[in-house]
Amino acid sequence: MFANSFELFIQRTVDGLAAGSIYALLALALVVVFRGSGQLNFAQGEMGMFCAFVASTLTLSGLPLWLSILLSMVVGFVMGVGIERVVIRPLEHKNPGGVLVAAIGLFLLINQLAVAVWGVDPRGLASLFPDGEDDFFRLFGAAVRWERVGIFLVMLVLLALLWALFTKTKIGLAMRAVANNQDSSRLVGIRVGWILAIGWGVSGAIGALGAALLAPQAGLSQALMLGPFVFASAAAILGGLDSPLGAVVGGLAIGLIQAYIVGYVNFLGGGMVLSVVFAIILVVLLVRPSGLFGSQRVERV
Amino acid sequence: MLTVSGLTASYGPVQVLQGIDFTVGDGEIVVILGANGAGKTTTMRAISGTMPRGGTVDFAGHELTKLSPDAIVRLGVAQVPQGRGTFSDLTVHDNLMVGAFTRSSKVTEDLDRWYSVFPRLAERREQKAGSLSGGEQQMLAIARAMMSRPKLLLCDEPSLGLAPIITQDLFARITELNQESGMAVLLVEQNANLALKIAHRAYVLDTGRIVASGTAAELQADETIQAAYLGV
Amino acid sequence: MAWPKDVRRGSAWHRVGQLVLFGLVALFFIRAGLTWNRSGIGQLTDMLLFATAAVGLNLLVGVTGQISLGHSAFFGLGAYTSAVLVGQYGWTPGWTFPVSIVLCFAVGMVVGLPALRLKGVYLALVSIALATTFTQLLNWDRLAWLTGGPIGIKGLSYLPPSWTPFDGRADLGKWFFWMSLVVFVICTLIASSMIRSRFGRSMVAVRDNETAAAVMGVNLAAVKTLVFGLSAAMAGIAGSIFAMKLTLVEPVVQFFTLFGSIFLLVMVVLGGAGSTWGPLVGAFIFVYVRDWASGVGEGNGVLGLFEGTRIGGLGGIVFGVLLIVIVFVAPFGAVGLLRKARAKVVRVLPRPPALPTVANAQEPQPPTTVVSG
């Protein structure tokens, strides 16, 4: 009996970490944008979904999966940069409150664009990792699927890459400088506008990767990112919107909470997961209004 | 080197600079004096391109009013903004590195040089800039500006919030930099006495107009000006 | 006298102008109520109900500067309160309205409490949480005895009472239209008079500078909580009527979900946050532009082009693009745009101050002394 419930616990932990890894990825994408420009990109999820469709189309045309996903990340990057330059930046000078409405407009636009281009029939996207019936190994008796491990590793690699980007490259240094003080950044010769646009691009690429990891299990449809985006924003806010570490911790925590609630709290049932997650976040925010790892500072909305 | 003519600038409907003219020659230290609200900081921002402006600003044959702040830095005009403008969340080291954003070669060489000029910064290399004292932050701001290897350094009220002895030290450093490298300096100051000691020439700014100009010695000698504008 | 002509606020001409504007809008609605066909009136009624909820949200977003993406929950709570009382307990629909108002007001106050401590995107997320949690509660099987779960509550009806001039089922559309119009007008009057009162000015203080408001002795906590409550109550009564008009409630009704919250916020921003006419104009644009855009997707064409071509998703694309275009063209909302247009014809001057002003003395210019260098 004990062994059995322990196995179950391991199982749920692994599932939670895998789901949490994707939330962490998407939360990272939100954080990269927020640190630079103080904005929450509501169209983030839809951009990712769109890119996953691109990846799926590329694989159907015969490209290898990894290359398709890589190219879809490039598409995500270009989309991010384009949206920042064409819509967000001009609007921020003219009408800061309108950025939110524009983001909602983008949300609808991209979502329905996917409908127009690819139709409403669900599609598939193969997984980067072995995800057949037998592709698992046993850990303390629990079946750990390789795909879950793969997703977790991708998240870690991405985190390392982002860390390297921010601390080891000139662009990364400029991104941190812009996040800290835009006026001084101009005075040292940084093109602030482009740095912000690159932030949106990086975020778009990460979003594309997140969607590509999610699509094999969730099924590729226009609704792919609706739920995950809400969980990811919750993760970003829980961790603190300007903290990459916070995004990862927040994402994993929410994945785990989700897995444990579904598994252990029978009274609530699966349908109430999000509510419980939000209740926990609310409590955290009331104690720390800028999230677990976020810095207290003035932000724009 | 720098020739400013008819420079105007406004905050919304309020015109702060009424069209001012001045020059900074090669290797010169020029100071603009004036009381609070005279338009000193606005002059600096108008040159560095961080606010909209009119008139002409010629720097070594380039028209700065048509350029963006980053292009102006690339031409060799660095600004130490009022209030220092250090990146408080970044370490001292990163602050200096970001100062060299427009350059790609010999950055470490310069880094070592400024660490040796300002040993206090070397000691606090890994500390966040926000945790430094006012004087240290001012050193950092100057060192950061120097990292771009400027031909002209704009210094906006470096003495602000510093004890007189630290200000004296700071001004001595600025003189050294000027003498060693022949870098021109445009200094904006409220503290007329200290500034006139290191400057070659000076202008007096009052409500957006240049009301007096001359060599530092002349202005120091002119009692009317001292009494009317420099609060002595 | 050259254009633009000057009109002083509160003067006879200013009042005439206001009356004419008000009269034209009233005329539009009265004419619509008397002559439009059933589906036209139905759509106009929906628009008025969304506008009423938007008036509530406008009070919050526009006046206190707090963002809420949770107002679909109050709209839905109002709707479900009426639906449960009518459908499960056999109440007369009209009597459920006050219950809705009070309940939404109370829940709004409670929800407003965390809003005291949170700002900006953090508050936005908590309100998103409210909207999603509400939908999950509606679907929750343990509450199905009350809410009907995923199936909802169907077969509601609210026939016009005998004291009204409406003739039963035949006039159902008109009955809901006039009722919604009256509720909308009442909510707008309450909101706009609040904005002008001392209380309202304190709200603006809260929006512009919290510390200053605190120094001035404005009780921030009380103001914010109360506004949240009122704002919720207005969304609630709109939801109640909406449910009765729809004759059913179910969790998938768009305006009970997060989308509803987003749409309400879009209306407020489109109309012009903080302005009295904003919610009406915003809701009008939203409902009719969306309708037109989905018509484009179904083959109505754009300006005679693409007629008969059906493209899936085109309606959403057109609407999304329009939203973006509108925020570019009208940075302060449609009302801001109209004001700008009006400024070309008439310039409204503030009321004359009580005391005569001292003409700004020209400051003496110092002599320009140039020491030759």
UniProtKB/TrEMBL annotation, chain A:
Subcellular location: Cell membrane
Main location: membrane
Family matches, as Pfam families: BPD_transp_2
Membrane topology note: Multi-pass membrane protein
GO biological process, one term: amino acid transport
Regions crossing the membrane: 16-34, 99-120, 149-167, 188-214, 220-238, 245-261, 267-287
One GO CC term, this protein: plasma membrane
Stated family: Belongs to the binding-protein-dependent transport system permease family. LivHM subfamily.
PANTHER family named in the record: ABC TRANSPORTER PERMEASE PROTEIN (PTHR11795:SF451), BRANCHED-CHAIN AMINO ACID TRANSPORT SYSTEM PERMEASE PROTEIN LIVH (PTHR11795)
Protein name: Unannotated protein
Organism field: freshwater metagenome
Source organism phylogeny: unclassified sequences, metagenomes, ecological metagenomes
UniProtKB/TrEMBL annotation, chain B:
An example Gene Ontology biological process: L-amino acid transport
Alphabetically ordered keywords of this record: Amino-acid transport, ATP-binding, Nucleotide-binding, Transport
Pfam short name (any one): ABC_tran
Molecular function per GO: ATP binding; ATP hydrolysis activity; branched-chain amino acid transmembrane transporter activity
UniProt domain ABC transporter: residue ranges: 2-232
Database matches in PANTHER family: HIGH-AFFINITY BRANCHED-CHAIN AMINO ACID TRANSPORT ATP-BINDING PROTEIN LIVF
Family, similarity comment: Belongs to the ABC transporter superfamily.
Name recorded for this polypeptide: Unannotated protein
Species this protein is from: freshwater metagenome
TrEMBL record, chain C:
Keyword list, A-Z: Cell membrane, Membrane, Transmembrane, Transmembrane helix
Transmembrane feature ranges: 12-34, 40-61, 97-116, 121-140, 175-195, 226-246, 252-270, 277-293, 313-338
Keyword Oxidoreductase applies: no
Example GO molecular function: branched-chain amino acid transmembrane transporter activity
A single Gene Ontology CC term: plasma membrane
Membrane topology, from the record: Multi-pass membrane protein
Keyword Cell membrane in record: yes
Location (main, coarse): membrane
Cell compartments where the protein resides: Cell membrane
Record-linked InterPro entries: ABC_transp_permease, LivM-like
Annotated PANTHER family: HIGH-AFFINITY BRANCHED-CHAIN AMINO ACID TRANSPORT SYSTEM PERMEASE, HIGH-AFFINITY BRANCHED-CHAIN AMINO ACID TRANSPORT SYSTEM PERMEASE PROTEIN LIVM
Protein name: Unannotated protein
Upper taxonomic lineage: unclassified sequences, metagenomes, ecological metagenomes
